[in-house]
Amino acid sequence: MSNVNSAWYFPETGTPDVLSETHLAMPIAGEGELLLKVLASGFNPIDTKIRAGLAPIAADNQVPGCDVCGEVISVGQNVSGFVPGDRVYGCAGGVKGSSGTLCRFMVVDAELMAPAPKSISAEQAAVLPLVSITAFEALERLHVAAGESCLIMGGSGGVGQMAVQLAKLRGAVVTATAGNDTRKDQIASFDATAIGHHEVASKAGMFDKVLDTHGGESLQAGLMAAGPGAQVATINARNTYDLTQAHAKGLTLHAVFMLLPLLTGKGRINHGRFLHWLAKEVDGQRIAVPETETQPASAVASVHRRYEAGDLKTKVAFTL
């Protein structure tokens, strides 16, 4: 096994041009950790915000990437359930206290990891953790239950697709927004009702639970769509909002930030447990994985530019 740990990093925050190739020291698995050979690193929008300095939570080695699918090379002390050769996946880095995932080798907290689904590629597995855990945590916070009406704002995005499917598995009656007919068809394929963003205004007060995946005007529309006493969750509360509707209807508002366990160290095992369950659902064909584009790590700056220009329409996994 080569001990060259190639990586891409940003020595300073800024535009995508700051991303460059480097070599890191070979890491060693400590107590409670796994050493991984990275098979694929998943891209997420938060990567661009961290790189730009808008989210000052960069990984210790300035390497981007939160999601990973990798092969276990060695197992640290006091780790059970994993052996060398296992293919695993998780949202395990990219923020303070960790390595980013856009490198050849990395150590991860074993509690954050789970065996990857067997029926999909490493690249597909690498784009699942962050969006899936975010959707799951949002639905948990909303206490989505069978028979409840649930609106998902942005149902064809990465988090939205997973939220639609997870809510359907809970027995909820799901409606989701999408921006064009192709994306509406995708939502309909999950046995959910697809509507355009402009149609939400005609459904004021109709939903028991609302999940907003965009923030801004999308959350404001979600507050209007929520019924009296409803619960609303958003994954982007970084803005100034008019909460008149929340007061008038006695709404409960949840802000969901799934990276907190990585930053605080608390609740990490819940991520690993969920990913164990998710792998079985994927392999059982009860959960469909998002469309995934594979790019070499050298394309990272280009992918960041495409996302920031609004031209990235699928999930992306990098290979090194």
List strands and helices in order, with pairings:
Blueprint: E1 5-9, E2 20-24, E3 33-42, H1 45-52, E4 67-75, E5 87-91, E6 105-109, E7 114-115, H2 122-126, H3 129-142, E8 149-153, H4 158-169, E9 173-178, H5 181-188, E10 193-196, E11 207-212, H6 217-225, E12 226-234, H7 244-248, E13 252-255, H8 260-264, H9 268-283, E14 292-296, H10 300-308, E15 315-319
Parallel strand pairs: 8-9, 8-11, 9-10, 11-12, 12-13, 14-15
Antiparallel strand pairs: 1-2, 3-4, 3-6, 3-15, 4-5, 5-7
Helix pairs in contact: 3-4, 3-9
Q: What is the CA–CA distance across the termini?
A: 15 Å
The CATH superfamily of the largest domain turns out to be Medium-chain alcohol dehydrogenases, catalytic domain
Q: Quick one: how many beta strands? A: 15
- Please state roughly what percent of the residues sit in beta strands, choosing from under 5%, 5-15%, 15-25%, 25-35%, 35-45% or over 45%: 25-35%
Mean pLDDT across all amino acids: 97
Number of helices: 10
Question: Helix- and strand-based class?
Answer: alpha/beta
Secondary-structure element pattern, one letter each: EEEHEEEEHHEHEHEEHEHEHHEHE
Radius of gyration: 19 Å
The general outline is globular
Give the count of structural domains.
Answer: 2
Instruction: Specify the biggest β-sheet.
Output: 7 strands, mixed
Q: Per CATH, what is the topology of the largest domain?
A: Quinone Oxidoreductase, Chain A, domain 1
For this structure, what is the CATH class of the largest domain? Alpha Beta
